[in-house]
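Bumping my old thread because nobody answered last time. Still need a sequence for this structure:
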């Protein structure tokens, strides 16, 4: 997404622009976003607070906002639901088609099935860089993360001497100990979940929980994974509150009237009864030793290229003039709600504008 936004912005300003893509077609990840509906932005006030790195993203997000002008310019009509922005068609394919045709009309040269590795990039004296022996005055790295696909996209960290913050999958399921998951595979219900490490609550979230045979998933778990990932996944146990609307005292009274099965799914009720102490377990059902899930099942990654080595206005490298980075390849991640695509689009435009200066 960031590469397409950058290429369209640069080419529209008159720069000869080439987009190298290792897959058969550009922007394929977009098709999977938002369950095929593409949640491409969010109208939250002070959106930077939803990122791991608010100080770094603030000025770019303040300038580009929700990218409404960009989306209008490529022919994507926006639709807002609960602050989340989608294409009005509710089809990610419409967004991708619009971006591809905007790139084509702007004159972007697209070179697909063409993965760029560090060996394919070389300095070209004071003239910029060579990519596959072709000269370019400026380079923008927008290779994303391996989330959802599992590829390695940080090669340029080494090439240009940039440091990499540790990368962890986020916005995905967690793998856990199986001892308290027995019989629960497929059970889904709302809950408030707390992650505790060394006896302290380190993260919490509310929403749907889905039990799996080797861990937990669902919107609450996805949100929780963002906070745990940003902490580098400390050794944490999870505690699920299935009756967050009731105080412990209220629950105690209600349990005199209603059986455990009337509060939760029967399989969960069975586990709770076999473990004893429903009063405690309905408010803090334990699932032990939560770890990061796979990169392939995650929607994003936390970590990436260290942001203090890039300008927070132009995204130009402070180590290699003429080299820029945009999107998720940087150590920038946002919470669920369209923040990651919003950063990709805004940062792509910012990097292109930065690269255009001095051309
Ligand atoms: C299933 C799923 C659902 C999601 N849903 C949402 C959502 O609804 N809203 C939201 O905000 N975010 C969502 N995200 C996250 C969002 O898609 C990403 O944060 C965003 O696409 C990142 O943009 P990017 O341009 O940095 O990277 P990408 O969009 O991943 O683009 C990077 C491109 O670089 C290419 N590439 C990588 N390495 C090389 C190389 N060496 N040479 C050439 N090309 C290379 C890749 O093939 C890819 O096309 C979702 C992610 C997934 C996996």
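Sorry it took so long. Here it is:
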């Amino acid at each position: 997404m960031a590469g397409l936004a950058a290429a369209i912005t640069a080419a529209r300003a008159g720069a000869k622009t080439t987009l190298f893509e290792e897959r058969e077609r550009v922007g394929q990840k977009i098709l999977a976003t938002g369950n095929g509906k593409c949640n491409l932005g969010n109208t939250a006030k002070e959106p930077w607070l939803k990122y791991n790195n608010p100080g770094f993203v603030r000025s770019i997000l303040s300038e580009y906002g929700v990218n409404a002008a960009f989306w209008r310019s490529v022919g994507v009509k926006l639709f807002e639901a609960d602050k989340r922005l989608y294409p009005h068609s509710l089809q990610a394919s419409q967004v991708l088609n619009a971006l591809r045709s905007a790139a084509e009309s702007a004159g972007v040269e697209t070179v697909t099935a063409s993965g760029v590795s560090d060996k394919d990039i070389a300095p070209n004296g004071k003239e910029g860089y060579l990519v596959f022996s072709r000269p370019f005055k400026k380079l923008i790295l927008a290779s994303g993360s391996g989330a959802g696909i599992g590829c390695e996209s940080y090669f340029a960290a080494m090439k240009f001497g940039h440091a990499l913050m540790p990368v962890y999958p986020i916005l995905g399921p967690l793998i856990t100990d199986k001892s308290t998951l027995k019989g629960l595979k497929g059970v889904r219900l709302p809950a408030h979940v707390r992650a505790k490490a060394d006896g302290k609550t380190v993260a919490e979230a509310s929403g749907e929980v889905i039990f799996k045979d080797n861990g937990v998933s669902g919107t609450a778990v996805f949100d929780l994974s963002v906070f745990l990932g940003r902490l580098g996944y400390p050794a944490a146990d999870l505690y699920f509150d299935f009756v967050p609307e009731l105080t412990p005292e209220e629950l105690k009274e209600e349990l005199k009237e209603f059986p455990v099965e009337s509060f939760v799914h029967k399989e969960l009720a069975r586990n709770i009864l076999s473990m004893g102490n429903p009063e405690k377990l309905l408010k803090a059902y334990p699932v032990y030793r939560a770890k990061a899930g796979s990169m392939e099942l995650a929607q994003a990654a936390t970590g990436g290229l260290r942001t203090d080595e890039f300008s927070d206005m132009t995204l130009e490298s402070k180590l290699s003039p003429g080299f820029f980075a945009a999107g998720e390849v940087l150590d920038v991640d946002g919470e669920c709600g369209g923040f990651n695509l919003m950063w990709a689009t805004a940062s792509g435009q910012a990097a292109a504008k930065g690269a255009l200066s001095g051309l």
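The longest strand covers residues 200-211. Let me know if any region looks off to you.
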